[in-house]
Amino acid sequence: MKAPGVLHTAVGFMDGHVENPTYKQVCEKNTGHIETTEVVFDPTQTSYEEMVKLFFETHDFTQTDGQGVDIGPQYLSRIFYTNDEEKAVAEKYINILTDKGYKVATMLKPASTFWKAEDYHQQYCDYKGITPECHRYRKIFV
Question: Is 74 helix (H, G, I), strand (E, B) or coil?
């Protein structure tokens, strides 16, 4: 699914204690990293708020042990924010979801260094010719 205004995405890792970790190292579950996606968007075509809504509408933000069949601490649901405004937007949507009765497992953390994953891990489902198992779109916000 290509979202309007998104210019580029990259898969990588954040929030750990090892510099420039590999996917294999992160999967060993001792680097402290979370697998994440860097999203670059054109703010004249979309907004951070729209990206947050899409984030919640395309994955299971209630799962506490990973994402879909990907189980482990490196697959936990996180939003990494770069400033107080981004944090407030994410908190707003977590509160909306909570008010709707969802138990939100997504945690908010300040962004740290983003380490881009190896090339073979980028656009992984396209590269492997498979359908994503842990992502599905469902409209939550009106």
Answer: helix
pLDDT (0 to 100) of residue 69: 85
Cβ contacts of 118-125, under 8 Å, gap ≥ 24: 118/22, 118/23, 121/11, 121/23, 122/10, 122/11, 124/11
C-alpha dihedral sign at 17, 61, 63, 71: negative
Q: Where are the domains of the chain?
A: 6-128
- Ranges of residues in the chain with a pLDDT under 50 are none
Cβ atoms of 141 and 57 closer than 8 Å: yes
CATH topology of domain 6-128: Peptide Methionine Sulfoxide Reductase; Chain A (3.30.1060)
pLDDT of residue 132: 58
